[in-house]
Amino acid sequence: MYVVLNTDGAVHSVSGLSAAGGVIRNNKGEWILGYNRFFGKCSAATVELWGLLDRLLIVQKQGYNEVIIRSDNLKNVIYTSESKSGGSKNALIKRIQQVLASEESWSLTYVPRETNWVVDALAKMALLSGDSLRIFEVSPLRIKEFCRKIILLIISS
Q1: Start and end of every RNase H type-1 domain (predicted)?
Q2: Residue range 19-56, pLDDT digits in tens
Q3: Is the pLDDT of residue 3 over 90?
């Protein structure tokens, strides 16, 4: 059985505060674990990388062997995947590459932003709360309500 990890970051346009979110689902798409983390002030690219590294370490700690990691940040997916071409000078990218290299059946792929809305919502929740790290064993009520609204929009269109 494989799991899917979706990850995303968010930066508030006025304050510059940032946060990241992630969801682990089983191969049937069912919620296993969600989490978000507030990072403070940093760029969009940096929060995406911190969020990705954070999520990889959490998934690794959970002991999953086969993991499909999905990110909507194409540049980070490309930079992280370029481990064979001399390596990156960015310390975060190097650390992410090390984690990915230590796991045989893990892959990092790009997904369009529209398909990553649940983790985007989790990241934005962390912006509002300012909590360091929150882990959700069940989908938060806000996310469930958000999912219902999206489904209703899809059905009605």
Answers
A1: 6-126
A2: 999 999 998 888 899 989 999 998 888 998 998 898 89
A3: yes
d(CA 10, CA 21): 8
Q: What's the CATH number where 106 sits?
A: 3.30.420.10
- List, in order, residues 6 or more apart from 31 with CB less than 8 Å away: 23, 25, 138, 139
Query: What residue numbers bound the domain in which 91 lies?
Result: 2-156
Q: Distance between CA atoms of 5 and 23, rounded to whole angstroms?
A: 6
Distance CA 118, CA 133 (A): 17
How many structural domains compose the chain?
A: 1
Task: Give the integer Cα–Cα distance in Å for 110 and 91.
Answer: 21
